[in-house]
Inverse folding.
């Protein structure tokens, strides 16, 4: 545009962050972006540098406000810092007594300028830091000033050990807890951010001391009540801080988790012995006092074996593996002391079970502790972005130990449901891991709710969920696949019908049961190859497949009226009780035939034969096949047929709706007209 002194002007985005256009970012301008002509960054930096030194408070405040806005731009920030602008900001903070709007703009500008990393945080003067700390510790000060001061300190803490120690000394945990208890959500968030920054920058010993102090001050209850269950929804940033706090708390278990048991430690040996004494005290202590040392040792070994230790003569060996190390011992001792009834019930119930079916308490506890450490990421560094905290963590003291107490009882319950033996140990713990992770993913708000849900998710539920997920994975639940399944059903049902009739043609050997329920005579029944006549007759023991001519009795299929099963059969209506009668009921069926309604009564040798015969007879009567075997066979055949049909579609996702059929082309007129040929 041929403007004089062109270097004094620059282009700037009119919307959004209003960044200046430079040679380095001009390629990022998108079509449709609105730019405006404005004074160049160096001119603007010069003007604002003078403005913030003005004696007129209005001019100074406006200049600082504009500075806070423009400092987001890297080009402007570079120009302003080059003019030693930060020194002037330090001066305003260190020398000024204002705690209102002007100070808020100054701190905002400082934060934005420091974001660009042109200047190290370590260059800040002690006077400046003390002033910032004083704003955090003051009671009567603008909330926005306190927020910015907390943010500045949060950014300082990770940069150097010196700054961490300075901030930790000047800003007490009590002061941060006071800020956490305000109603201003932003101030609460910034206080939490500084607390987390201090925890992450601390050494292990310092972190442990800080967490102990926070526990004394009931921070957990406060967070659970006032932050997690507040009326305001939880923001992503606060969720991340709660995740870090949870992670730091759980990582306090890491030291015990990575420490193997020392068999020479008196304290650890006493903890181990306390487990045995709590479980068997009443029965062993009284009698053991009279025993020799050798006898007492063998009694202890026997009791440790009942407790489920693999190495019962030296149980400390089981706890040499780290992880889970001593953490497993801590959990077992906690369980035995805080829920003694459940502990005794677990141990005594399993020590009285038959061999191989007992659930080993100690071995399960060690493995479960390891599983919980893996699920809760104990000993792993915090993620910088994760927000996955468990609300129930903040609702419970001794969270890890209490969770263990619930889950070790779950192990016993699942063990019984699976009717497991020692060989199934890994399978049971795999199911328990799945029960825990699935329940945790529902984010229960309290351990009580977790306990209810995890116990409801029994072994049969897990099997159902696995089956459903497998079907989803194989895409057998996609709409087009379900349609194909329905289309294949009639064809496969016909195949099952043919198989049932073929089985009837081969025939089966049945036993006659007299009125006294004494099994004696054998008889054979089979269908003629043309499916028109049922042939039957008595046979001798040892005859397996008599020819059709040797069976004298006949029933034409056309004369058959109906099929009766179970209690409806005339030969089961005689009064009798007991197991045998129940078995007979499950295998009994009768054919009603002829005008006189005679009955031919059967007792199938097995449930499998019962299903095949009742299905076959229903086919002959023109009815549906109703046995459970039909459904099983149909599912197997459908599954195989679908897999074969879908082989070519492996790794191709099937859409739920068919693609649209295109319209016919305009020149679709190549139909042959036969009338002309006839003429």
């Amino acid at each position: 545009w041929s403007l004089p002194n062109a270097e004094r002007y620059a282009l700037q985005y009119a919307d959004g962050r209003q960044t200046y256009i430079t040679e380095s970012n001009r390629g990022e301008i998108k079509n449709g972006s609105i730019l405006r002509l404005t004074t160049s960054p160096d001119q603007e930096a010069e003007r604002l540098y003078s403005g913030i030194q003005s004696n007129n408070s209005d001019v100074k405040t406006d200049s600082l406000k504009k500075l806070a806005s423009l400092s987001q731009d890297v080009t402007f920030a570079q120009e302003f810092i080059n003019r030693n602008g930060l020194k002037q900001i330090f001066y305003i903070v260190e020398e000024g007594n204002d705690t209102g709007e002007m100070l808020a703009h100054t701190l905002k500008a400082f934060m934005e300028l420091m974001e660009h990393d042109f200047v190290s945080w370590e260059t800040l003067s002690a006077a400046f830091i003390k002033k910032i700390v004083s704003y955090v510790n003051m009671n009567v000060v603008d909330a926005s000033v306190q927020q910015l001061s907390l943010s500045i300190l949060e950014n300082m803490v990770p940069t150097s050990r010196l700054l961490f120690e300075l901030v930790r000394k000047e800003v007490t945990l009590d002061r941060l807890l006071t800020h956490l208890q305000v109603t201003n959500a932003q101030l609460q968030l910034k206080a939490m951010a500084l607390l987390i920054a201090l925890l992450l920058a601390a050494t292990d010993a310092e972190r442990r001391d800080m967490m102990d102090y926070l526990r004394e001050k009931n921070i957990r209850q406060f967070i659970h009540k006032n932050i997690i269950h507040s009326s305001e929804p939880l923001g992503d940033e606060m969720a991340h801080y709660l995740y870090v706090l949870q992670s730091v708390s759980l990582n306090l278990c890491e030291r015990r988790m990575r420490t193997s048991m020392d068999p020479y430690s008196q304290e650890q040996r006493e903890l181990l012995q306390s487990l045995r004494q709590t479980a068997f005290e009443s029965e062993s202590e009284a009698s053991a006092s009279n025993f020799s040392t050798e006898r007492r040792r063998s009694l202890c070994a026997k009791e440790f074996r009942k407790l489920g230790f693999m190495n019962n003569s030296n149980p400390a060996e089981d706890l040499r593996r780290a992880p889970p190390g001593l953490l497993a011992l801590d959990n077992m001792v906690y369980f035995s002391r805080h829920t003694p009834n459940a502990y005794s019930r677990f141990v005594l119930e399993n020590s009285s079970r038959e061999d191989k079916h007992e659930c080993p308490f100690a071995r399960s506890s060690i493995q479960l502790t390891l599983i919980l450490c893996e699920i809760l990421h104990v000993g792993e560094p915090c993620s910088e972005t994760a927000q996955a905290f468990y609300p129930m963590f903040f609702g419970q003291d001794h969270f890890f130990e209490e969770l263990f107490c619930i889950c070790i009882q779950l192990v016993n319950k699942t063990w019984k449901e699976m009717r497991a033996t020692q060989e199934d140990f890994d399978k049971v713990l795999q199911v328990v891991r799945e029960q825990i992770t699935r329940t945790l993913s529902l984010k229960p708000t309290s351990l009580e709710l977790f306990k209810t849900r995890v116990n409801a998710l029994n072994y049969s539920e897990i099997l159902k969920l696995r089956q459903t997920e497998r079907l989803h994975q194989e895409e057998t639940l996609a709409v087009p696949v379900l349609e194909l399944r329905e289309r294949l059903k009639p064809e496969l049902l016909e195949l099952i019908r043919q198989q049932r009739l073929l089985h009837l043609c081969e025939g089966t050997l049945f036993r006659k049961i007299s009125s006294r329920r004494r099994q004696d005579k054998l008889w054979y029944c089979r269908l003629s190859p043309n499916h028109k006549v049922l042939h039957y007759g008595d046979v001798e023991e040892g005859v397996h497949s008599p020819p059709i001519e040797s069976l004298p009795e006949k029933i034409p299929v056309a004369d058959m009226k109906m099929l009766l099963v179970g209690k409806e059969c005339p030969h089961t209506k005689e009064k009798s009780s007991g197991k045998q009668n129940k078995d007979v009921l499950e295998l009994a069926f009768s054919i009603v035939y002829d005008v006189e309604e005679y009955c031919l009564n059967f007792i199938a040798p097995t449930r499998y034969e019962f299903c095949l015969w009742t299905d076959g007879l229903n086919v002959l009567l023109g009815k549906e096949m109703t046995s459970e075997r039909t459904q099983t066979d149909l599912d197997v055949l459908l599954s195989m047929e679908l897999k074969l049909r879908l082989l070519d579609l492996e790794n191709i996702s099937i859409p739920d709706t068919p693609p649209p059929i295109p319209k016919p082309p305009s020149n679709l007129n190549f139909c042959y007209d036969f009338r002309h040929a006839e003429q």
Summary: Residues 479-506 form the longest helix (28 residues).
